[in-house]
Amino acid sequence: MKKNAISLGIVSFLCFSSILNAQETQSNADLLKRIETLEAEKNKPKEWDAALYGWVRTEYSFDSRQSAYAREYNLNLYPLDEKLDANGKDINAASASNFLAITTRIGVKFKGPDVWGAKATGNIEADFFGNTELNKSSAGSGSTGLLRLRHATATLTWPKTALTFGQTWYPTFIPEVYPGVANFNAGILFNPFGWAGQIKIAQKLTPELTLSLIAYKDREFQTATATGATLNSATFNSVTPTFHGQLQYKTKTITTGFGAEYQSLKPVIESAGLVSNEKLNSETYFGYFKYANDKIIAKAYGITGGNLYHLVMIGGFAGYTEPNGQESYRPTKTSSMWIDVASANPKIAPGVFFGYTKNSGVNAGYKNLYVRGISGARILDQVWRASARVDFKQNKFNISPEIEYTTAKWGDINAEGKAQNNMLEVGNFRGMVRVMYSF
């Protein structure tokens, strides 16, 4: 009886031990499976993701002469022509300065589930530059300091094709090749600038060569306003978008390309009391080059064409009186080029910039000139700018002092919309310091 009890105890213990071992084994298996599941989830690409970026940016600037500008002297364009008072003194020889943080920027990049086999991404970006200038005739401040939309795009990317729609850079502005100046003007007058609503298809012909075709409508900024027109009505009245084509070759050290575009605008729908079908047609051609390694970054850009006003460049278009009393339009021709060379040092990076632009006028016989760079009976002949900067960088913090000198040559307007007589060169020295903290 005693032996039977002992045997029964041993058997019970072994069974209990087996059950415990089985449970432990199952528990370990479950734990391992759970770990594997968590690892798989961790390594699995996120279906939705978003990332904030931007910077706080503050600039102090001093100008030795009155200049054409935007947003409370933040963005200087060209020095104004001589304006003499009763004593023969130049009123525009007065200096100016300001301290602003309106170029502070915020944006978000996001991605979501694939669409028709393409990677889907998007971007929304804004700053506080505003869309309208200070109203000099009242106490109003325009929209300076208020939020302004810069980019709002969605992109579908396949292995060799990308489709982008929304608002982003004018196609003649090349994000990979633009001046590295500290000034917020980003080389304006010499380099195209602004954003437009558009649809763009980019096709890789080879790993290095990409063909881009774009259709866009002016938004910010617009062409000049003709007599009887309203702001940007030339774009609204035209059923034809601007067509742009570009080839870009890109390797690890070299980015280069060229392109052309055709624009057809309709400034007004009524002229001389009659229906107007007059168009403003123009073509533009441009090319660019960039070389970059771990020592140096060198860039160059050139553009020529008609009616480059919407790209914040000099020129625009002229109005002609037709036999029926209506106004027809012809673009003025503008050419521009710039070069920028800078160090690629990650801590202290000096750089220099030089830009030149020329007004080549329009056909004779015009009645009105709708151009940038005109003052009464005087017009710009050419503008050049030279600047030097040093970027002091530490992590996401950046301090950049810069000096620049801009010279404008003014003259009396001749029959072809050019400067001809009483030529006068005036210059503006700008000293500035830019401070940025990025995130």
Give a concise summary:
With 439 residues, the protein is mainly β. Helices cover 10% and strands 52% of the residues.
List keywords for this structure.
439 residues; mainly beta; Porin; 16-stranded antiparallel β-barrel
Structure class: mainly beta
Strand-and-helix sequence, N→C?
HEEEEEEEEEEHEEEEEEEEEEEEEEE
End-to-end C-alpha gap: 83 Å
How many β-strands, per DSSP? Answer: 25
CATH top level assignment of the domain at 114-402 and 409-422: Mainly Beta
Task: Give a quick account of the main beta sheet: strands, pairing sense, barrel closure.
Answer: 16 strands, antiparallel, barrel
- CATH architecture verdict of the domain at 114-402 and 409-422: Beta Barrel
Net shape: globular
- How large is the count of helical segments? 2
Structure description:
Keywords: Signal. This is Porin. The chain has 439 residues and is mostly beta strands. The chain has a domain at 114-402 and 409-422: Porin (Beta Barrel), CATH 2.40.160. Helices cover 10% and strands 52% of the residues. The chain is built from 2 helices and 25 strands. The chain has helices spanning 2-43, 233-236; strands at residues 49-63, 67-70, 75-79, 96-100, 105-115, 118-127, 148-157, 161-169, 195-204, 209-220, 242-250, 254-265, 270-271, 274-275, 280-292, 296-306, 315-321, 327-331, 333-343, 348-359, 368-372, 374-375, 378-394, 397-412, 424-438. A 16-stranded antiparallel β-barrel has the order 1-5-6-7-8-9-10-11-12-15-16-19-20-23-24-25. Strands 18-17-21 form a 3-stranded antiparallel β-sheet, with no helix packed on it. The protein is globular and about 95 Å long.
